[in-house]
Amino acid sequence: MKTLIVHAHPEPKSLNGSLKDLAVSTLRSAGHEVRVSDLYAMNWKAVADAADYGPHASDRLKVARDSGRAFDAGTLTPDVRAEQEKLLWADTIIFQFPLWWYTMPAILKGWVDRVFTYHFAYGVGEHSDTKYGERFGEGTLAGRKALLSVTVGGLESHYAARGINGPIDDLLFPIQHGILYYPGIEVLPPFVVYGADRMSDADHPDLAKAWERRLLTLESTEPIPFRRQNFGDYEIPSLHLKEGRESAGRTGFGLHVRA
Questions:
Q1: Entry pTM
Q2: Residue 255's closest CA among 231, 222, 223, 233?
Q3: pLDDT tens for each residue of 138-190
Q4: How far apart are CA 247 and CA 258, in angstroms?
Q5: How far apart, in Å, do the first and last CA atoms of the chain sit?
Q6: Alpha-helix residue ranges (DSSP H) falling in the chain
Q7: Which of 25, 57, 61, 96, by CA, is between 20 and 30 Å from 49?
């Protein structure tokens, strides 16, 4: 297995840094190939702008169109091309980050904004009366799996169905479904560390064992069963879920997960 770890935390000695290091050592010891994109250590540029697209940036910047033109011409900046190549190399992508203000750190969102360009991660495939592009189960990155390894400050009860922060699956839905599944990546159930700020040194051995177990079962873990866009569940072009496809009482984001 070839694994890319995309790590987003500014402190190497943080819990996130430790989980990243443990993932590297565990997977390599098991015979897997591992590459790491440590975004803070790389001093990753988090803002998508005209400089990314070189001669293909228009006078009135159009990010989607211009990024696609630069991708097609092979003129995206070297840092962006390198990350795209890593994604194409990988079988599995692990995203290691803290949940800040209910989402990923800005530097990681900037990685997505710059790397997931038009014609690479979106804007691919046939658009017709029966197919609305290759996305949500199809696309450039189909055949790969991803796992979010996320640390959160609150207790698990805060992120339950009736918790004040909302269900963790709902908070992660924009990332898991909207960013990763969109270009075809199958998404594994997340590894979530609750109460990260309250952890003591005595808690670390059990956490390490749990993380090692998840890492060593990545290949056998079933992905979240998100519905595929072009395979009968949705009306096209409205992309509304067809009546009667949902389980009784299921609403919201849960509609887009098969029972």
A1: 0.94
A2: 233
A3: 999 999 999 999 999 999 999 999 999 999 999 999 999 999 999 999 999 99
A4: 8
A5: 29
A6: 15-29, 63-73, 78-89, 106-115, 168-175, 204-216
A7: 96
